[in-house]
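Materials and Methods. Structural model of NAD(P) transhydrogenase subunit beta. The 462-residue sequence of NAD(P) transhydrogenase subunit beta from Mesorhizobium marinum was retrieved and submitted for structure prediction as follows.
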Amino acid sequence: MIATGIQLAYLSSAALFVLALRALGQPTTARRGMQMAAFGMLVAVCATLVDQRIVSYEWLIVGLVAGGVIGYPLGMWVPMTAMPQRIAFSHAFGALAATLVGVGEYMHGFHEGTLTYGKTVALGFEVFFGALTVTGSLMAFGKLQELLPGAPITFRGQNVFNLSLFAIGVICLVWLVVSPYDTAFFVAILAIGLAVGVLMVLPIGGADMPVVVSLLNSYAGLAAVATGFALDNNILIVVGALDGASGFILSMAMSKAMNRSFANVLFGAFGAEAGGPEATQAGASGEMVGIDADDAALRLAFARRVIIVPGYGLAVAQAQHQVRELADLLEKRDVDVRFAIHPVAGRMPGHMNVLLAEAGVSYDKLFDMEDINERFSDADVALVIGANDVVNPAARTNRSSPIYGMPILNVQDAKSVIVLKRGRGKGFSGVENDLFVSPKTNMLFGDAKQSITQLCVEVKQA
Ligand code: NAP
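The predicted structure was written out as tokens:
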């Protein structure tokens, strides 16, 4: 009776997770999607807590308290701009849990003499993917948090070495299945998994870390599926599969938005050139021309069409509320205001959508790159706020640029361009930007929040 109840609860949480993923695909329903997913997780956790295989609740309570104490500050206080490293950190914990469960189950099966072939496959797989996700995620966290050098660390024959080590891990896994009580192979799988995680992330530059984090998310999902098979737990299998598939799709989508092949992200050591002298000095010959806030405000106030292009700097400045106020003020003056959203603006997919939604910018004002690119030529002003790489014409024109081929917003087609940034800092990829020295462009230097606040004051008086 209890067992049936648990399975029914698992079925309803699985349905909630699928519906949540669907709702997360649209900005208008994303919030509901998160609530559904959280409720689904609550149902799954409560159902698991009544499982009769639980021998003692003491350690569960310790785990719940420790998880709550660590998770609450992570969720509440880590800023949006640090979200990729926070996610990497969480993946490391999730994968550590899967790995420890795998080790525990193997030891239990070893002593009880219950290691079947099926169970050993699941445990070996779980420990291998779990271990590489732990170290891979910690490496990604270190690079994103700048605790480790962001530039790729490469050595001769690296890809062959890494793939060979991976292959040895797989051979050990096969061997363990043939001989489940040979613990040396189990330990080897664990050690090789930990080493592969480190080696896999070493040659990948900081600029590609969000793709790696999402791929590690996929690996953590695969480890969860294996845990589900090992523990005979259906919800872990379903959730792991959803996690594995969505992480993989997201990695592919990010690579596509940067016009990079998946293999190039994983094996291309992108960022080595970006940090190098040729890349940083290439292009951008000419002087940047500044503009005062009052002149910029006049240009905006008397424009007919303005396209606002938000980027990572908007998130750093936390200027989303000010930008909404500016858009409202311009609209009151009958200016047509739209926001152009590049798929990889910011530091994670949907970063700009989340930021602007938080400030209450209506969804129908947000336009994806493919929907707005044609409209730049009609815009009197393109107002670039803390965006750099996603508006860099070098992605189209400079074959030697590390971002060559990445689709960009057609900002340079607008009649005039005003760029808000603090100084001459480069974008995430570390390359110069010709847009800033174009005769059409004026630079309004300063922190985006302060600059937009000034623009609002001046527009009110215009
Ligand atoms: P970006 O290229 O990183 O440039 C951000 C700009 O914001 C900088 O040039 C900086 O210049 C300026 N800035 C920083 N703080 C500011 C502040 N307080 N006020 C005003 N300006 C400020 O940003 P992006 O154009 O959004 O491009 C995103 C990059 O991330 C791309 O290279 C993309 O490939 C990469 N990426 C994104 C994702 C994703 O999912 N979104 C995933 C992987 C990689 P100053 O220092 O001079 O102010």
